[in-house]
Design a protein that fits this description.
α2 runs antiparallel to α3. 78% of the residues lie in helices and 0% in strands. The protein has a single domain, classed as Arp2/3 complex 21 kDa subunit ARPC3, CATH 1.10.1760. With 185 residues, the chain is mostly helical. The longest helix has 36 residues, at 2-37. The chain is globular and about 50 Å long. It is built from 6 helices and no strands.
Length: 185
């Protein structure tokens, strides 16, 4: 009897996890698409990265594997429903940044706040996109290095903002007992 009960509990938990991750994927894809439509005219490639808030929530809620899944699914959905040519940039950067955030969070969660992890993820994201642009668009080294400081500064700013938002939302989710997590933020 106890085996049946624990099996049912596990299935319920798995269902809840699937539903929550699906919501995070949907929210991150919608935020990414909306943000893409609200591009700054003279800097159309610059984004705050609000969708990354959902990835940070997935990271603290379920760990690295789930965060990478949310990140890559967001990139795929945003590419399909938003801008298909940008899919290669978004998918590669999403994969590298979410893996990096996951590794940092797994190993150094006591030393880095969610804001610090967000900043690291944003910098890795921008650097990956620059590398992909360098390879695919055949950018010159001079062009790549000229834009590098701006990309790092914008990544730090965006990472701080998304980290602050994520920290606030995680706190609300914790206070309202919407989820119970076993990780510190």
């Amino acid at each position: 009897m106890s085996q049946i009960k624990s099996e049912k509990t596990t299935k319920t938990i798995d269902t809840i996890k699937i539903v929550r991750l699906s919501l995070l994927i949907a929210l991150s894809a919608v935020l990414s698409i909306i943000e893409g439509k609200l591009a700054i005219p003279f800097l159309p490639w610059l984004r705050i990265g609000l969708a990354n808030v959902m990835i940070l929530i997935a990271l603290t809620m379920y760990g690295m594997r789930s965060a990478v899944s949310v990140s890559c699914m967001k990139a795929l959905l945003a590419g399909i429903f938003g801008s298909l040519p940008m899919l290669i940039f978004s998918l590669s950067a999403s994969l590298t940044s979410s893996l990096t955030m996951g590794i940092i969070y797994s190993i150094f969660r006591k030393k880095f706040s969610i804001i610090g992890i967000s900043v690291i993820g944003a910098v890795v994201h921008n650097l990956t996109q620059l590398l992909v642009a360098f390879i695919i668009l055949n950018l010159s080294r001079k062009s790549a290095f000229a834009i590098l400081p701006f990309l790092i500064i914008s990544a730090i700013s965006a990472g701080i903002l998304t980290g602050l938002i994520a920290r606030y939302l995680i706190k609300i989710l914790d206070e309202r007992k919407i989820w119970i997590r076993d990780r510190e933020v």
